[in-house]
Specification:
Blueprint (H helix, E strand, L loop, with lengths): L3 E14 L2 E14 L3 E6 L5 H8 L7 E6 L2 E2 L5 H11 E4 L11 H6 L9 H14 L15 H13 L5 E5 L7 H16 L3 E5 L3 H4 L4 E6 L2 E7 L8 H14 L3
Parallel strand pairs: 3-8, 3-9, 6-7, 7-8
Antiparallel strand pairs: 1-2, 1-4, 4-5, 9-10
Helix pairs in contact: 5-6
The protein binds adenosine-5'-triphosphate and magnesium ion.
């Protein structure tokens, strides 16, 4: 049995703009399991990013409940949410948002500034992550001296510095070329194999196939939930066909 790491109950998220209510996430009951690499797909505007922000304490939900690791986080004040994010969660976005005037090393260190992390342990962790991401020789560089793929790998190191319970990624390969994207996905596959829980939004079939579960969103509701565990032994092509068929059935 897998542990539930995130659970929502009748979760709704609405936005009000120009006096009109836009119900984006509708009465959602969802469980995300520890150790899974969960992928969220769906057409543009279906609410993927909104869902990701709602379940990760990045944004307040409108009604319903969200539990993270057993704790009800639905009504937490921003101060507590911010602490939860810093201590237990990691985030990677499409637009790589490194701090331009900090080096690679300093960027990765930056989330720990206000946390009481042991200095030596943190240094060891950064060295470990840099090596893993093939960035050891880049530690003193500034973001503008690096390629898109390298920068995204730095952003992943930064997201992993606190050993997050869950790594959230919103279209992490969206601004990368194909080979850079593949290297980012290889890292995700590696850390997933090591036990890291991941939740990733993507438009890309090649990215989706890395997950072991694909949730399909349609108009703010879950319209499909494909588990890929039973295809673990299957060839890449078989997995790809399975995912493709699932998505095609959903009108992707
Ligand atoms: N901060 C916001 N204020 C008002 N409306 C918003 C806000 N964020 C999202 N929305 C609306 O919510 C809906 C879903 O947006 P969301 O960004 O979650 O879609 P998405 O599935 O991630 O799309 P894409 O694939 O294009 O990134 C859209 O109609 C959008 O206009
Ligand atoms: Mg989005």
């Amino acid at each position: 049995m897998k542990n539930t790491i995130i659970k929502t109950e009748l979760m709704c998220k609405s936005f009000i703009s120009d006096g009109e209510v836009n119900n984006v996430i509708k009465n959602m009951d969802l469980e995300i399991y520890e150790g899974d690499f969960t992928v969220i797909m769906g057409s543009s505007g279906s609410g993927k990013s909104t869902l990701l922000y709602s379940i990760s304490g990045m944004d307040e939900i409108s009604t319903g409940k969200v539990y993270f690791d057993g704790q009800n986080i639905s009504n937490l004040k921003e101060k507590h949410l911010s602490r939860l994010r810093k201590e237990k969660l990691g985030f990677v976005f499409q637009g790589i948002n490194l701090i331009p005037n900090l080096t690679v090393y300093e960027n990765i260190l930056s989330p720990t500034y206000k946390l009481k992390f042991d200095k030596k342990d943190t240094d060891n962790r950064i060295n470990y992550l840099l090596e893993k991401m093939d960035l050891t020789t880049q530690r003193k560089k500034f973001p503008n001296q690096m390629s898109g793929g390298q920068k995204q790998r730095v952003a992943i190191c930064r997201a992993l510095i606190n050993n997050p319970k869950v790594l959230f990624a919103d279209e992490p390969t969206g601004s990368l070329n194909s080979s850079q994207g593949q290297s980012v996905l290889n890292i995700f596959t590696d850390i997933h194999k090591e036990g890291q829980s991941l939740v990733m939004v993507t438009h890309d079939l090649k990215a989706a196939i890395r997950g072991n579960r694909i949730i399909y969103l349609k108009d703010g509701r879950i319209d499909g939930d494909l588990r890929l565990e039973e295809y673990e032994e299957a060839t890449y092509q078989e997995r790809e066909e399975t995912v493709y068929k699932f998505l095609k059935d959903k009108g992707w």
